[in-house]
Amino acid sequence: GSAYTARFRVWRGDADGGELRDFDVEVHEGEVVLDIIHRLQATQANDLAVRWNCKAGKCGSCSAEINGRPRLMCMTRMSVFAPDETVTVTPMRAFPVVRDLVTDVSFNYTKAREIPSFVPPPGLRAGEYRMRQEDVGRSQEFRKCIECFLCQNTCHVVRDHEENKQAFAGPRFLMRIAELDMHPLDSAEESGLDRKSAAQEEHGLGYCNITKCCTEVCPENIKITDNALIPLKERAVDRKYDPLVWLGNKIRRR
Ligand code: SF4
Ligand code: F3S
Ligand code: FES
């Protein structure tokens, strides 16, 4: 394989502002964008800030935008770009910049904390849980999430709408609610915790108009929209308009 020199355009700056800067960096066969960023850091821009850990698509740290598309830097092969193409690397747009390619993703941790965890079934001890394989399989897909927050960064509800962040948990955390709500052993409801109406009323499920942009950028290929958000919407709506459920809720609330 032969090495070549690529033109990289990288955003440099901090919370007060910044700019795109051009660099020419050497590329070797088989390398990914993160390799080039590391070479740039080692040879020309020692103070370039970049977050990464595993270089294997598993830690979810190296999220950025490459030519405007949200992606993992460690999973984006240089071979997808033409050698004479400028490769532009910018920080995730929906989150505040800390420095260079590093953003403050604490929005996501705040949302995560707002979702009550799994409520164990009363009277059953660990080791006594029994589930059908079908139910196990369903939530297994959601548990592949590496928390890269690319879906959170991409969803148009918050991408350019800071004002929606308060009321919208984003696809990753609506998926978390869906996962718990589908869980046959989750006993939230028995303990008075209605995950479906919380999804609607506290976490902004209604803001999602199923554009599927979240699903398109997920590096784990989780079918966020089809398998989590749409079923959650259906279950939430069913309840709202099912007269028996409605009456049941009314009586229970008294
Ligand atoms: Fe990343 Fe996919 Fe998890 Fe969203 S659902 S945080 S895109 S792994
Ligand atoms: Fe946003 Fe995904 Fe819904 S991109 S609008 S959460 S389908
Ligand atoms: Fe871990 Fe890219 S460095 S996902």
TrEMBL record:
Domain 2Fe-2S ferredoxin-type stretches: 6-93
Record keyword Metal-binding present: yes
Cofactor names: [4Fe-4S] cluster; [3Fe-4S] cluster; [2Fe-2S] cluster
InterPro entries hit by this protein: 2Fe-2S_ferredoxin-like_sf, 2Fe-2S_ferredoxin-type, 2Fe2S_fd_BS, 4Fe4S_Fe-S-bd, Beta-grasp_dom_sf, Helical_ferredxn, SDH/FRD_Iron-Sulfur, Succ_DH/fum_Rdtase_Fe-S
Keyword Metal-binding: yes
Record pathway: Carbohydrate metabolism; tricarboxylic acid cycle
Pfam families hit by this protein: Fer2_3, Fer4_8
Top-level taxon in the UniProt lineage: Bacteria
Annotated keywords: 2Fe-2S, 4Fe-4S, Iron, Iron-sulfur, Metal-binding, Oxidoreductase
Gene3D superfamilies found in the cross-reference section: 3.10.20.30, Alpha-helical ferredoxin
Family: Belongs to the succinate dehydrogenase/fumarate reductase iron-sulfur protein family.
Protein's recorded name: Succinate dehydrogenase/fumarate reductase iron-sulfur subunit
Native source organism of the sequence: Streptantibioticus rubrisoli
Phylogenetic placement of the source organism: Bacteria, Bacillati, Actinomycetota, Actinomycetes, Kitasatosporales
